[in-house]
Amino acid sequence: MKFKNKKILLIIGGGIAAYKALDLIRLLKKHNNEVKSILTKSGREFVTPLSITTLTKNKTFEDVFDKDTDAEIDHISLSRWADIIIVLPTTANFMTKLSLGKAEDLATTVILASNKDILLVPAMNVRMWIHKATQKNVKTLLDYGYLFLGPEKGEMACGEYGEGKMSSPKKIFSYLENYFNKRNLIKKRRIKALVTAGPTREYLDPVRYISNESSGKQGYEIAQALSRLGIKTTLITGPSNLIFKKEIKTKNIVTANEMFEEVKKSLPVEIAVCAAAVSDFKPLKISKNKLRKEDLATNSIRLGKNIDIVEYLGKNNRYRPKLVVGFAAETENLNKNAVAKLREKNCDLIIANDVSKKDSGFNSDYNRVSIFDGSGKIQVIKKNKKSFIANKIAEIILKKLLVNDRSFN
Ligand code: C5P
Predict the structure, then answer these.
(1) Among residues of the chain, what percentage have pLDDT more than 70?
(2) Torsion of Cα atoms, 129 then 132 then 133 then 139, to 10°
(3) Which residue of 167, 241, 261, 282 has the smallest Cβ count within 10 Å?
(4) Co-location of 181 and 232 in the same domain
(5) 256 Cβ closer than 6 Å to some ligand 1 atom
(6) In CATH, what number is assigned to the domain containing residue 378?
(7) Which of 121, 151, 185 is the last residue of a domain?
């Protein structure tokens, strides 16, 4: 389905592919969308404000110090106005600026101040694209949540052949079609999700507790990825040093019992992702006062079992979420244990991660996961940022949830 009445903010960068922005504007306008544009200083070398304004029928914004505009307000109001921001072409230099979080002109300031989705459409010489510095920027920008389309393989303006060619306006248009359709569907179906994250603490006395290494990062990234898709997400998290974004409804808990209570309060939801490293056991007795050495002289703490939250959700007759996703942090027999967990807890998906490696998993920005559904292993994601993995998981979840909906692809 073609989209219409959308507000697109186009940032036109300094590359030969900038002329294609004009074609994209025509396509967007033909389908009754509104386009506003920011032309960067180097973009001005390739296209003129006059040709852009003629097509958008809107003023072309330029430098942040533009005397005709109230620039202070512009960078906020332009971002507020937009449904999505597209940078076209995204040059290698522009990517570096975004990676550093620069706010040196109107384009970079708008982006830094924005909470909207930002689609980068890179175009550059193949060597610039494959340079380690650029690829490092790609990773950083993906981690920040920027979306990418292309570049593609093909013949470039510089005469070379390879990866670096900008996606065509037609391709950008169909990307947007998919993007808006997906979000419309999510909005229409009012999809809600809950995500558990982080460790729990099970207290022995007022100052001592049993806990684990979990940082909460993978769960938080999943909550962010779902929320970015327009899904109303509640994050229920144990103690964590992470700074959570205000946009995500966050419930802070300490013990497994408290997590369970918050989970119940959040039902019903369509999606439940249990990424928390919940303590399986809790001390049977919590001492009101700090235990003394002598109190522990027996060298034993009596433990009782905590409720298994993901299993409660998976086997819930009344409020079973359509999709229950569990995690399996393993140090051995990853596949076998993951499949067994999926069955035992009646999950639809299990994300298994190997926590025996020091450079990923618990307390790291990185993870390596294998994803299983009832039919077996469906995807393996090699070591990558937790944010990247979260986006992949969110995509899989959505696909599974909307598999029978014809307007979704
Ligand atoms: O059995 P194991 O603890 O390895 O299973 C891990 C999965 O179960 C994770 O999804 C975790 O969030 C969930 N879990 C839970 N409640 C518990 C223990 C684990 O939801 N009490």
Answers:
(1) 96
(2) 80
(3) 241
(4) no
(5) yes
(6) 3.40.50.10300
(7) 185
Per-residue b or e along 210-235, where b marks 16 or more CB atoms closer than 10 Å to that residue's CB = bbbebbbbbbbbbbbbbbbbebbbbb
Structural domain count of the chain: 2
- What average pLDDT does the segment 174-201 reach? 94
14 lines ligand 1 (CB under 6 A): no
Q: What CATH number has the domain bearing residue 143?
A: 3.40.50.1950
pTM above 0.90, yes or no: no
Domain residue limits at 114: 7-185
State the average pLDDT over residues 43-56.
96
From the candidates 130, 157, 158, 307, which is the catalytic residue? 158
**Are residues 371 and 346 part of one domain?**
yes
The CA distance from 203 to 39, in Å, is 58
Q: How far is the CA of 248 from the centre of ligand 1 (A)?
A: 23
Same domain, 325 and 349: yes
Pocket test for ligand 1, best of 211, 253, 262, 274 (most atoms within 8 A of CB): 274
Residue 233 banded pLDDT, cuts 50, 70, 90: very high
127 with 237, same domain: the answer is no
Indicate the pLDDT class of residue 5, thresholds 50, 70 and 90. very high
Q: Is residue 397 part of a domain?
A: yes
Per-residue model confidence (pLDDT) at position 347: 98
Domain match, 163 and 212 both: no
Phi, psi of 27 (to 5 degrees): -60, -45
State yes or no: pLDDT of 59 exceeds 90: yes
Find out whether the beta carbon of 308 lies less than 6 Å from any atom of ligand 1.
yes
Instruction: Report phi then psi at 295, rounded to 5.
Output: -65, -25
Residue 242 and residue 110 share a domain: no
Which residue's CA is minimally distant from atom 17 of ligand 1? 308
Cα torsion 308, 310, 311, 317 to 10°: value is 130
> Ligand 1 center to residue 321 CA distance, Å?
16
Confidence bin at 161 (pLDDT 50/70/90): confident
Tokens of 368: 């390596």
Question: Is any atom of ligand 1 closer than 6 Å to the C-beta of 341?
Answer: yes
Using one digit for the tens of pLDDT, what is the confidence trace for 385-404? 899 999 999 999 999 998 76
- Encode 283-311: b = buried (16+ Cβ within 10 Å), e = exposed: beeeeeeebeeeeeeeeeeeeeebebbbb
Q: Does 173 share its domain with 201?
A: no
